[in-house]
Design a protein that fits this description.
Blueprint lengths: L1 E7 L6 E3 L4 E11 L2 E3 L6 E7 L2 H5 L6 E2 L3 E2 L6 E2 L10 E9 L1 E6 L5 E5 L3 E2 L3 E5 L44
Parallel strand pairs: 2-13
Antiparallel strand pairs: 1-3, 3-4, 3-8, 5-6, 5-7, 5-9, 9-12, 9-13, 10-11
Length: 171
């Protein structure tokens, strides 16, 4: 059983996430003839959030590990871990247990079996500026030339030269 569409606040790999992200996913996804087929449910899940990709690869949630939660619901799972830092990349994944029918017992009733939980791929999100005192910068606007732009929205742009090596850039 695969897990697809790992979402944070309804988005894939979002930027500007609040201090309490909300996770969701689609469990029971399989590829059949090159097409995704949905509908196989889950019986339980475990969400981990890690501060580094290497930890997520090892299935270590140093910031949050929900533990195994018996639930068929893969939607609106609210983060309940350590405080998240503003403007920081985080990595997460979900382990999903599937409840599947393994056969009929002697009196004709269906028996169910739980397979080992299967881990999803790793997804990421980036927090936004979460505290007022962290905001820096100046208002961007038409300024004294506002009369020129009363009928059209102005194009707001600025040219700059980066000093030193660029370590990371996001739009």
């Amino acid at each position: 059983m695969g897990t697809k569409q790992l979402l944070v606040n309804g988005l894939r790999t979002p930027y500007g996430v609040s201090e309490k992200p909300v996770f969701s996913w689609i469990p029971g996804t399989e590829e059949i003839d090159g097409k995704s087929v949905y509908g196989r449910g889950q019986s339980a899940y475990r969400v981990i959030v890690s501060s580094h990709m290497a930890l997520a690869q090892q299935c270590i949630g140093d910031l949050w590990d929900s533990g195994k939660v018996e639930s068929e619901d893969p939607y609106d799972i609210v983060y309940a871990g350590a405080a998240l830092t503003s403007k920081t990349d985080y990595f997460w994944r979900v382990q999903v247990w599937e409840k599947e029918v393994s056969g009929a017992c002697c009196d004709g009733c269906e028996q169910t079996a739980y397979e080992d939980g299967v881990w999803s791929e790793i997804a990421a999100f980036t927090t936004g500026i979460n505290r007022q005192e962290e905001w820096q910068g100046q208002w961007i606007g038409a300024g004294e030339h506002v009369e020129k732009f009363t009928r059209k929205a102005p194009i707001l742009r600025k040219t700059f030269n980066a000093k030193g090596e660029i370590k990371n850039a996001k739009l």
